[in-house]
Amino acid sequence: xxxxxxxxxxxxxxxxxxxxxxxxxxxxxxxxxxxxxxxxxxxxxxxxxxxxxxxxxxxxxxxxxxxxxxxxxxxxxxxxxxxxxxxxxxxxxxxxxxxxxxxxxxxxxxxxxxxxxxxxxxxxxxxxxxxxxxxxxxxxxxxxxxxxxxxxxxxxxxxxxxxxxxxxxxxxxxxxxxxxxxxxxxxxxxxxxxxxxxxxxxxxxxxxxxxxxxxxxxxxxxxxxxxxxxxxxxxxxxxxxxxxxxxxxxxxxxxxxxxxxxxxxxxxxxxxxxxxxxxxxxxxxxxxxxxxxxxxxxxxxxxxxxxxxxxxxxxxxxxxxxxxxxxxxxxxxxxxxxxxxxxxxxxxxxxxxxxxxxxxxxxxxxxxx
Length: 369
What we know:
Elements: E1 2-6, H1 17-30, E2 34-39, E3 48-49, H2 62-72, E4 78-82, H3 89-100, E5 107-112, H4 119-126, E6 132-134, H5 137-146, E7 152-154, E8 174-178, H6 188-200, E9 206-210, H7 224-235, E10 239-241, H8 246-255, E11 258-261, H9 275-282, E12 287-290, H10 295-298, E13 305-308, H11 313-326, H12 336-361
Parallel strand pairs: 1-2, 1-4, 2-3, 4-5, 5-6, 6-7, 8-9, 8-11, 9-10, 11-12, 12-13
Helix pairs in contact: 1-12, 2-3, 6-7, 6-11, 9-12
């Protein structure tokens, strides 16, 4: 089976769709599939660059770039469009039409890693009535609400289980980690303001680390005044902006005393899944998260957690202070069954994808679950 993954960005940070795609592609190959990633980021590992997908600069000749993309994926039996609802929507529609017009058209799937309220994006997802892969109940239910009758397949994300060593810079007190990408949407400004208020009030019993500081192609969206306010605490070693590989993320999260995941938005643009929160659950780490998107669903039934409102700096500050003073709230016990259920979901992800491809192609795939 030949499978093409069309993505915009192939530079993985601590989380995100590139992490899923990289793990999925490796596992699909182990299952015997021929698969390739096409992306718009120059220098990405294990991805073929195509100008049509470059988000930093529009193609010099849009029609030629589209034709190059169509030629690149010609002969693939399955073409999976990752997050087609966010960028170059007219190009995406023309790409779909061009693929379906081929003498032997592939099966085309949309793969949603996030959502927004933008109606133009939902119109792309409605175009030609293609099947849609959703990676959480939160996304699947929203798709069914906005596109009645849509063919929605809820499949688990992929995530490498390979682990590598990681050593934090020197720190004092409790180690608080935000393992998400450094961005406004992930609540980085909220967490920075909360820890700054605690540091400025004289707390000496923690150090804050924020991951995902490299391999970005978009600005963080963080206010320069906020970063300037954090700078003296960086110099004193109390705030760190760090970067580690996906394999190192397991060890980084394991070493944290507790993890923050304050995604900033509600509604359709809330947290779509959260790989890093799943990693924290699998390792029994306490989590303070916002009531954004899939986070409350993912953390449902998990013991050492606190769910706070989105964008509430005071609530996050107070939750951190309470956990520093008293530890995880009494009576909250880690249930290993939830972590094991997540681990098994990641392990079967590629098998589920292969089974879906086989059903869509009308043939059973040997070895598919």
